[in-house]
Design a protein that fits this description.
The chain is of the alpha/beta class and 309 residues long. It has helices at 10-21, 32-41, 81-87, 107-115, 159-169, 181-202, 206-211, 213-232, 241-250, 259-265, 272-285, 291-300, and strands spanning 2-6, 25-29, 43-47, 50-54, 58-60, 71-74, 97-101, 119-125, 128-133, 136-140, 148-151, 175-177. Helices cover 45% and strands 18% of the residues.
Length: 309
Amino acid sequence: MRIAVMGTGGLGGFYGGNLAKEGNDISFIARGDHLKVLQRSGLRLVGPEGSTHIKNIVATHLPEDIGLVDIILFCVKLYDVEEAAKLIKPIVSKHTVIISVLNGINGPERLSKVLKKSIIFGGAARVSAKLSEPGIVTFLGKRENHKLIFGHPDNINLAIVQEFCNTCNKSGFPAEITDNINIELWDKLVQLTHVAGLTTLARCSIGSVLKDSALFKIGKDLLIEVESVARAKGIALDPDIIQKKIKLICSFPEGLYASMYHDLVSRKKIEVEDIFGYLSRQGREVSVKTPTIDFVYAFLKPYKNGDKE
């Protein structure tokens, strides 16, 4: 089985790195200084229990150098989806499975518009990881808690996908194939909206946010609004999702920040348009009021292209 990782940032680096350290045939697509370090000295994964150095990895900025692959972990930012999808065309055959490991909801749909008849699975990553410097991905929590969940909207069952799932489970992180990826994507979006909205807007870690009663209330309002939009769209979320998400978020490491926060303070583009903007628009379409989402969106939207003082 040949695997490629499109976008070797926090998510791509974590999952791809763990797959690579077990000797799987995996190629990384990256750029800039990060690519140079990967080619020169490999990738380091740094977590609470220590670090792992994966040497002699295959990394390139030219997907066509890789050749056709069986699986592509597609791990780019939401604002780069279409451009990155065009780049991977040379390594996609009619049998290649692309797993969209993106934030938000509409990644698979957007990929399908570019890659037409390709086999595209949705994916939900349960990991807090970031590219802390070229060649180094840092993550919070134990590897065994960082599940990768994926599935096809039409519940397609393929032998290569099951093989990939088994390979992931042997590589230091759990993986699961779901028969309802839409629920999984919305389930993740509920908590993502809370953590991304509050840690980015307040510039505080999740631990600090949860200790502030006013911010805690805003966070709960965000959860309720995303749930309301999802239910209005016919997504059968867990009936107790709000309380379960609050309990889950309260269990996160106190120093956790959303990737959107890290991008903002680094003056990079942020995914505000395809998370908060998307939810705001979806709310209007299904006649659900989203005042808290709209508030966060309004204050973060000016930073969507980065480079703000």
